[in-house]
Every structure is written in C-alpha cells, then in structure tokens.
Amino acid sequence: MFVDKGLAERVAAEGARSAADVLMTVDIGNLIELVDRDLAQPVRSAVLEAAVPAPLRDAEGRWFSLSTRARLVYADPDLRDLAGLTYEDLADPKWKGKVCLRAGQHPYNTALIAAHLVRHGEERTEAWLRGLKANLARKAGGGDRDVARDIVADLCDLGLGNSYYIGLMRSGRGGPEQKTWGDGVQVVLPTFRGGGTHVNVSGAVVARSAPNRDNAVRLLEYLVSDEAQGLYARADYEYPVKPGAPLDPLLADLGVLSVDPTPLVEIARSRKAASLLVDKVGFDR
Amino acid sequence: MLQDLARPQALPAPARLRPGAWTLAAAAAALLVLAPLAALAAEALRGSSGLWPHLLAYVLPQAIRDTALLLAGVGILVVAVGTGAAWIVAAYEFPGRRILDWALLLPLAVPTYIAAYAYLDLLHPVGPVQSGLRSLLGYARPRDLALPDLRSLPGCILLLGFVLYPYVYLPTRALFLMQSASLVEAGRCLGLRPAAVFRRVALPLARPAIALGTSLALLEALNDIGAAEFLGVRTLTVSVYATWVNRSDLPGAAGIALALLLACLALIGLERAARRGRGYAGAAQRPRRMGRTPLAGPAALAAAGACLVPVALGFLAPAGFLALEAARRLRVAGLSDALLSESLNTLRFSALATLVAVALGLLLAAGPRLVPGAWRAALVRCATLGYAVPGAILAIGLMPPLAAVDGALDGLSRTLAGAGLGALGLGTGFALVYAYVVRFLAIAVGTGEAGLARVPRSLGDAARVLGRGPGATLAQVHLPLAWPAVLGGALLVFVDCVKELPATLLLRPLNVETLATHLYGEAARGTYEDGAVAALLIVAVGLLPVAVLLRVSTPRG
C-alpha cells in the first residue's frame, strides 16, 4: 500500500503484527530512517549484491537502492554556454531574479543542500543558500514541473528539477500542456565543483517483522532483474541501478550522468542540519 | 455556546436518564479524543534538543505573521461571503434564488489542494486565461503582460476564502431560516432600513452560528498543507511537517502541533467568553417564518450576482476545469474499474463515521442542557479538540493507543485461545472511522449546540414539568426543532470525511484505496490530470448529501 509521510511510524506502531514484508520509499533519508528505527533486517543475497553497486546499498544489506534520479538544471533554451554549470554557480549574482525552485524544505532540495554541506561545510553552504535565495525569481514552492512551466512562461530563466520529470513531461504522458513545458526547456547535467551530479534514490528494505521473508527477498531480486530495471527506466524514467541496464531514450538524450561520489549515507546524516539551515537563511520565506 | 444558556434552565433530573449515563458516555467520548492527544504529548515530552530556540530565532516570527495574516484574511472573507449570501437567500426572493440556495454549498465538495491545482493551471501565465487574454490584447510573450501571481499570500487567502465560506454559510443560513419573523418585523416597524435590519437584528442573533462556521473554516485553513505548500505560503503547520519529515524529529513536530492546539483553544475560548451570558433562544410560540421580500429589476440582478460570484469562484471554475480534464483523460484512458470500489470505500467509511459523529455530537451538545455542571461542559470541550490538530499528526497520535489495544487483545487471545489475533485496530476500517470521528466530532458538537441554542428553554421546561424525562425531552422537543442545524452538521462531517487525506493515507487498511488516496497517488506521481476523474468523483460523492439535506432542511410553511 502507498503511504507518503509516516511509513516508518505506521510500521513501527504495528510492530511484530505488521503484515508488511517489503518497505519501499524514495529519498535516502527515508531509507536510513527505516534502518535507524530498526524496522529493516539485514539481507544477504548474491543476486542483489551483484546487481546493486556498493555505494547504492547498505554494507550489511539493510537497504538497497532500486533506481536513481538526478537533480538537474532546467533552463531557458535561449541561454548559451551552460555546459560545465555547477550547483555552486546557481548562487552567482548574475542569475539574480532568474532562478525558480521548489521549497528548500522539500526532501529533494534538502538532500541536495545536505550534499553541499558534506562537501563544503556549514559556513560555505549557508553563504551558498543565501546567494541562491537572493537569486530567486519567486518564492520557493510548488513542484519541479512548475519550474519548467515558469521558465516557459518567462517568469525565470533556470531552476532545478528531478530527471524523471523530464521524461514524464516530454513523453506527453502528463498531457499535452506538460509536453510543451518539457519541450520548452533545455536540460543541463550540473555537477558540484570538483564532483559529480547529485543523485537520490528510490529503494527498499525487507521489514524487520516480514511474515514472508523469503518472498520479500525474491521480490527485491526481481526488482533488480533486467526486466524490472527496464520497467523502472521505461515506465518511470528513472536511472536503473543495475550497471548496463538500458536507459529510456528521453533520459539518454540528456547526456552521460557522472554521479557525485559523496556517500548517500553521509547525505542522509546531514539532512537535519540542511533543513535547519534552510530555516536559518529564511529560504522558503 | 450552549452551556452559557444551560445553567439557568436546569431542573432536577428525574430518574429516566440518569445523569450518570450521560456523564459516562461523554467521558468515553472525551477519552477517545484525548487518547491520541496524550500519545502526542508523551511523544513531545521525549524532548527535542534545541528545537524551540531554533524556531524562535528563525521560523516563528515569520510563520506567526503569515499564519495570522492568512487567518485574518480568510476569516474576513468567509464571514463576509458566507453571512452575506445566507442573508440574501434567506431574506429576499429573486430569480434563481432556489438554485443558488443550494449551489452556494457546492464549494464544500472541493478539497482545497484540488482547487489550488486547478486554479494554478487556469491562471498560470501559460494557462488558458492569460494566454487568451494575451491573444485578445495582441501581446506575444508572457512577460509583456505581467499579472499578479496566484502563488502568494493574497492568492492563498482568496482561494481558501472562496472554497471555505460554506462552513459559515451553512450554519448561518440554517439559523436565519429558523429565525422568527417578529424580531425582523419589529426592526422594520421601528424604521430600520433593510441593511440596518441585517446589521442590527439578524447579524447579532446569528453570532453563534457565524462564530462556529468561522472557527471551522479557520481551523481548516490552518491545517491545510496541500494548498499552502503549492502556493508557497509558509504557515506554522508547514513547519510542523518540515520538523517531522526533514529532521525525523517527531517529538518536535508533536510539540509544535500541541502548542498550535493550545493557541487555537485560547482563540476559541476568547470568542466564547465574549458571548458569555447572552441568550440566543427564540420565542416559545411556533415561530412564524420570516417572509422573503421580493426583489425586482436591478436589485434582483444584484442579489443573484452577489450569490453567483462565490459559486462560480469556489466551485464552477475549478470543477469545470476538472470536468474538462476528466473528459479528455476518459477519451484516452477510459474509466478504471478501481474507481467504483474506491467510491464505495469512500462512501462506506465516511457514512459510518458521520453516523457515529453526529450521534455522539448530539448527545454531547444536549448533555449540559439536561444535566448541567461546569466539569461536564469541560468534558464536551475535550471531545472537540481533534479538529485543531493537523490530520497527519493526529493519525500519528492515534497509532500508539490503537497498537496498545491490539497488543492487549492479541495477548488475551493467546492466553485464552492459544492463538494470536493479528491487528484489530490499527490498519483496519475501524481505525479510519475512529480517526474521522476524532477529527470531525467538533463539527457535530458545534452544529448540534448551535441548533439547540435556538430552542427556547421554556419548551424544554414545559416538557419536563409535564413529566418527560431528559431523553424524551431531547427526542420529542429539542431534536425536531434543531433538526436543520443537526443535518447541516452531518453534511459538513460527511464531506470532510470524503475529502480527508493525510489520516486516511496513514491509517487505511492494506490494499484499500479511497478516492482521496487514489487522487493523491496520481498527484504524487505527478500525473494529477489522471486523477481528475477521482477528483470529480470526490466532488460528486460530496454533493449527494447536499441534495438530501436541502430537501429536508428547507422549512415548509
């Protein structure tokens, strides 16, 4: 069943009587929380360990990523020379009044800010956030696709959005209007200065009290099979975790992704500090 | 509002309905509501280091200001629109009045976050309205014609105001309709102009209903997370979610939610205190209904227009947009079978919760009339606290008590029968109905009180002198007179259950979807246009009782 916020609370309250075998969620912070609250159990599986690269899973087998998504720059097609753009550049005063973003307190942005924190430390992250805030064309809010729509509407020139929204919009699956938003922006794969592109994951854990543990492991093994990884790519426009699994053409067209090496666990551990910084600089005000 | 009137009318209770029976029932209801709040308080007491200094320094100054502005704006709008429209349809006859009378309730059926989605699509610079305007005026690019952005505090106030005004319209309209003509006619005889009759006679008499409706609308606005997040407004409730979700700080989130609850209580208490000692009951004779003054010409047009604007803004525009989207999706994708079972689930859970809430609410509202006492009135207030807590936080609070009951029953069955039971509370339909009742009992109690307050105390006294017990007096005297208000409350509870999202999402049984969770799933996947059919069905299911209600509640003669 689909739960948004509060998955951990529900399963924790159900305790040993929980009927859940597998808990799936997005955002590394949510995965780590399931582990921290002792709601996940370690799994040893040669299939999983072969399919999921080590940085995208727990060494003890308590969580596994199933797909990744990159935090990309959507930009006005008229902008030139955006190759080599970094996340740090977005705070450059030359973009004053030209940047659109969803709320800093949204987990997608909080994770990006946490990655900046791990890489550059608190002081520089605060300065970066203040610069970014000063560049906003409108209050931070809405969703990632609103960034594309606002660029099409000339409200701003560039902003951040997740990779799969580009697939959803450009494929026309969200309707003809969204196709015009997706086609109306150019997409850049930004990197951290001296690093790579920030990615987050969707993933799963086998529940601590799983009544059908063996089937739970089998489901996870299926989800990293070529067939299921292909589904993630084609149906959800996600990047598969399995090396060599084919990308959807809409994603492949964006260019080659160079993933930032910052360990996901460290990003998850810094998300609270990132969230506090967002409040401190009044980012969402 | 009722216990203000209750004390002087008390008669010694005869033996038929023992005060003990009512007290027991009220205490049980209060306990059901207090259990999740106690769980939240226990959570908050686990402590959250450094939370309050952080909030005080960086969050509260701005969040309190924005929340206060939002509530003030929405409050002014819902009172003006809700009361104004109620008075126009109650006091005047004009072409279209019969339709507008019930059409004014329609925005009730539109969840605020759906209205926000729809309006942003409609009014965005690349949306149909502005694109049309540009091509009409000959502008080529959006930046050539910059209009104010809906995504702002004023935008949020307008949107919430025009969607939430029915919370005021419904109880106030019921009250105007129950109102005896003699007071209004006395005002007219004393030379008051129509506007002055409204301002000096009708409005003060309607104050309990207006206060009730406004407090419901404001709590709805305060606990809204979808529309506020979408429109970029940072209320205190948004901070509750940020603390919980992004910082895994549930104790902190519970603490903020409880502090908010106390602030709400203080505000509601202030309004009640300001009304203390005033009576709002009518005369003991069967009241003659106020006749509607016929309007003609420009006055009729103005009245119809004034009532049409809220219907158009609060319902026709967002629902019409959804209908267009739904029609387009249906042509492409067809109707999914799941929607039927989801509609039935929605109906079932909502109807059950409404029955329980209205029965409990009536019992609680009538209690202080039948068996007075200050601490009994306090029990009633305790039972209405659930409405002032954000849905998701309330759901989190409900989990420990439900799990504890499950654990106890499970253990008992293991000892007695040698086998466990599995979950009986958490993750069953019971948990969902329980959550709805806790969350919306305040509406049923409030509307019950508002209805009973109109019943002259001499009628109850007469019944009692003639030998009826408190229960019989309630059933045979009070209930028939308060019926429109009670039904209005039932409608509000039902529609709120249908729309309820965060608690439903968290507490529903495995593999059970309602229309609201289906819609949210689509919205979360970013394919909310696919959810247009579900959104429309929410609106349709919410409309069912509106039709029933109006047939029953329009007084004859």
Structure description:
The complex is a heterodimer of chains A (285) and B (557). Chain A is an alpha+beta fold and 285 residues long. Helix content of chain A is 42%, strand content 14%. Chain A contains 12 helices and 8 strands. Chain A has helices at residues 7-14, 28-36, 46-51, 107-135, 144-152, 163-170, 176-183, 213-223, 226-236, 249-252, 264-269, 271-280; strands spanning 22-26, 40-41, 64-75, 99-100, 158-162, 186-188, 199-207, 239-240. In chain A, strands 1, 2, 3, 4, 5, 6, 7 and 8 form an 8-stranded mixed beta sheet that branches. Chain A is globular, with a radius of gyration of 19 Å. By secondary structure, chain B is an all-alpha fold. Helices cover 75% and strands 1% of the residues of chain B. Chain B has 24 helices and 2 strands. In chain B, strands 1-2 form a two-stranded parallel sheet. In chain B, helix 2 (19-45) crosses helix 18 and helix 3 (51-91) packs across helix 7. Residues 1-17 of chain B have low confidence and may be disordered. Classes of the chains: A alpha+beta (285), B mainly alpha (557). Chains A and B meet through helix 1, helix 2, helix 5, helix 7 and helix 12 of A and helix 3, helix 13, helix 18, helix 22 and helix 23 of B.
The first-to-last residue Cα distance of chain B is: 29 Å
Strand percentage of chain B: under 5%
* N- and C-termini, Cα separation of chain A: 34 Å
Give the strand tally of chain B. 2
CATH topology of the largest domain in chain A, by name, is D-Maltodextrin-Binding Protein, domain 2
Order of helices and strands of chain B: HHHEHHHHHHHHHHHEHHHHHHHHHH
Shape of chain B: globular
Strand residue content of chain A: 5-15%
List the quaternary state of the chains.
Answer: heterodimer
Class from secondary-structure proportions of chain A: alpha+beta
SSE class of chain B: mainly alpha
What's the structural blueprint in terms of helices and strands?
The complex is a heterodimer of chains A (285) and B (557).
Chain A: H1 7-14, E1 22-26, H2 28-36, E2 40-41, H3 46-51, E3 64-75, E4 99-100, H4 107-135, H5 144-152, E5 158-162, H6 163-170, H7 176-183, E6 186-188, E7 199-207, H8 213-223, H9 226-236, E8 239-240, H10 249-252, H11 264-269, H12 271-280
Parallel strand pairs in A: 4-5
Antiparallel strand pairs in A: 1-7, 2-7, 3-5, 3-6, 3-7, 3-8
Chain B: H1 3-6, H2 19-45, H3 51-91, E1 92-93, H4 97-103, H5 112-123, H6 128-137, H7 153-164, H8 166-178, H9 181-189, H10 194-205, H11 207-223, H12 226-230, H13 236-246, H14 250-275, E2 293-294, H15 297-333, H16 338-370, H17 374-382, H18 391-417, H19 429-453, H20 457-465, H21 470-499, H22 502-507, H23 515-525, H24 532-553
Parallel strand pairs in B: 1-2
Helix pairs in contact in B: 2-14, 2-16, 2-17, 2-18, 3-7, 3-8, 3-11, 3-15, 5-7, 5-15, 7-15, 8-11, 8-21, 9-10, 11-14, 11-19, 13-14, 15-24, 16-19, 16-21, 16-24, 19-21, 20-21, 21-24, 23-24
